[in-house]
Design a protein that fits this description.
- The protein is mainly alpha-helical.
- It contains 18 helices and eleven strands.
- The chain has helices spanning 14-22, 50-66, 70-77, 96-102, 110-130, 136-157, 178-193, 211-223, 225-229, 235-250, 280-284, 308-311, 404-410, 419-432, 438-445, 459-470, 476-482, 508-513, and strands at residues 3-7, 33-37, 160-162, 174-176, 271-275, 332-333, 349-352, 354-355, 373-374, 391-393, 414-418.
- A three-stranded antiparallel β-sheet has the order 6-7-10, with no helix packed on it.
Length: 523
């Protein structure tokens, strides 16, 4: 294949030039050069090993979506669920986390830039696999991964740049409108259905794309159709949500008792697709420096916290979350002096509030020697002490008696698609069609202990229920936008009512490099 190169300006020593002249078969390394396939009659030559490139793409997606910044921060820290208050000088970071919470981000925000680059790069890598004449299974999985990443570009930014694989860097990518991107994602997912296995519950069956995973993303797409297309909700589209969820259920996926066990790397009936991305961020970003485990004696990072008003949407004692406080299962529990043990390492599940303990039941202390008592309230964005704010944890540090295989699998098992979400999507579709969704919502609640049945379900109640079930699972911003709540005020966030904030700004560097892009309104 002929290569064309676009070089950054460099000064090449004479000796190196001489070596170039003496060599007749040069291989140009992709370092300072931007190398692309020669366009023209030859077109895109294709990848040498599409299946291997697909594995690499899965790994990259796993790394991107296990990060605590970028897409995750935009999806969860921008909501009423998560807040990273500055404690002393810790987590100041020039205000980058506070801007997420207060909706005061700008087009040069680092997380926004990184998310844009990650997602669009993944779309292009998937396109390279698709255009390399792969086998049917590889083609279908690549189309699923392209749709998955494009879905998030469309959801977070609206406009979606798209570069053909045979276009060099001198070609400005065309830009899909949000509605065009919606159609593109739907087409890829529909195509992917033909080449994928049905999918069934179990760890061995849910780490790659399946028909069940495709149907989940189709349901998510159709449920948000009015947002993406700027149209009214219609019954035909909501029926598509219901049909997609019913297809998932037909493959054996179902609600499961034992809420926090779902987030372990063992077989369950709820996980539809998980990514092999480290879960360390989900464990340690909120735990205190003095909370640790055998694999992490250095303790937590003492950052991520939650708001009291979100905690108050759960059933149970409003000021305590120790075992036996009558709380619903999904709110979790904090081990105390009588319930802390080696198995739970003294670290609770769900919402951590009040005095914290080690695995022997001894009260933990902060770094100054005072009691480590997580407060319910966060008084301000800055100027806090290190124990300010409740913490949230769904994934848990491993039990020291676990096998090495289980420990290693646990570190690479973050759930992206879960049946309880699909079940609630079906309930929402029914509600939007004018039907009663109470029995469906109560069916979920009955699988969670200490959770009472609801007498009725409105849109506001359904949004609360989605929050209680799916907190810190990537979908809170998506839900708030769809229910028209994302721009409303909440604790320590004053900006409200600006619908332009339903979309993030396109990074300024992207607009400078591609004149086909137009900045979103309000930025």
């Amino acid at each position: 294949m002929k290569l064309k190169t676009v070089f950054k300006p460099v000064i090449i020593p004479i000796l190196v030039i001489a070596s170039f002249i003496s060599c007749t078969d040069l291989e140009i390394e992709e370092t300072d050069s931007i190398i692309s396939a020669e366009t023209g009659d030859s077109g895109f030559p294709g990848l040498a090993d599409p299946a291997s490139s697909l594995n690499d793409l899965y790994n990259k997606v796993g790394g991107d979506f296990s990060n605590q910044e970028n897409q995750y921060a935009m999806s969860e820290v921008s909501t009423d669920v998560l807040l990273i208050p500055t404690r002393g000088t810790d987590w100041g970071d020039n205000g980058i986390w506070r801007q997420m919470h207060t909706h005061t981000w700008k087009s040069d925000h680092l997380f926004i830039l990184n998310a844009w680059n990650n997602l669009n790069q993944n779309v292009f890598r998937a396109s390279e696999i698709i255009e390399s004449n792969p086998d049917a299974s590889t083609l279908a999985e690549a189309k699923f991964l392209r749709a998955f990443n494009m879905f998030f570009v469309m959801d977070l930014f609206g406009s979606v740049p798209f570069r053909e694989v045979d276009e060099g860097p001198e070609v400005n990518p065309r830009v899909l409108t949000r509605s065009e991107a919606y159609n593109f994602v739907e087409s890829d997912l529909r195509d992917a259905l033909n080449g994928l296995p049905d999918g069934q519950p179990g760890v061995a069956n849910t780490e790659r794309a399946t028909k069940a995973a495709v149907n989940f993303l189709l349901a998510k797409l159709y449920l948000n159709a009015s947002v993406y297309n700027g149209t009214e909700t219609d019954n035909a589209t909501m029926q598509k949500v219901i049909d997609a969820v019913d297809d998932i259920k037909a493959q054996g996926f179902a609600l499961q008792e034992g809420y926090f066990q779902i987030f372990e790397p063992t077989d369950d009936s709820e996980t539809i697709w998980f990514i092999k991305g480290g879960i360390g961020n989900r464990i340690w970003n909120g735990l205190h420096y003095n909370q640790n485990s055998p694999d992490n004696g250095g303790g937590g990072w003492n950052g991520f916290s939650t708001l009291s008003e979100f905690y108050d949407t759960f059933e149970g004692d409003p000021n305590s979350n120790y075992a036996g406080n009558g709380q619903e299962e999904r709110r979790g529990w904090v081990p105390d002096a009588t319930t802390a043990n080696n198995e739970n390492l003294g670290i609770g599940y769900g919402f951590l509030i009040g005095q914290q303990f080690d695995e022997q039941g001894n009260p933990l202390k902060n770094r100054q020697g005072g009691p480590l008592v997580f407060s319910k309230e966060i008084p301000a964005l800055v100027g806090n002490v290190e124990e300010t704010g409740m913490r949230i944890i769904k994934y848990h540090p491993f039990d020291p008696t676990d096998t090495e295989d289980k420990i290693n699998s646990f570190r690479q098992h973050q759930i992206m698609f879960r049946y309880a979400d699909a079940h609630l999507m079906k309930a929402e579709a029914m509600l939007r069609m004018g039907n009663d969704a109470t029995s469906l919502v109560n069916e979920l609640r009955q699988t969670r202990t200490n959770t009472s049945a609801l007498s009725s379900v409105s849109e506001d109640i359904l949004l609360e229920e989605r929050g209680r079930e799916l907190y810190i699972e990537f979908w809170r911003r998506n839900d708030l936008v769809r229910f028209g709540k994302f721009t409303e005020p909440w604790s320590l966030k004053e900006i409200s009512g600006d619908s332009n904030l339903n979309l993030f700004p396109i990074p300024e560097t992207a607009i400078l490099s591609n004149p086909n892009l137009v900045q979103n309104p309000g930025y």
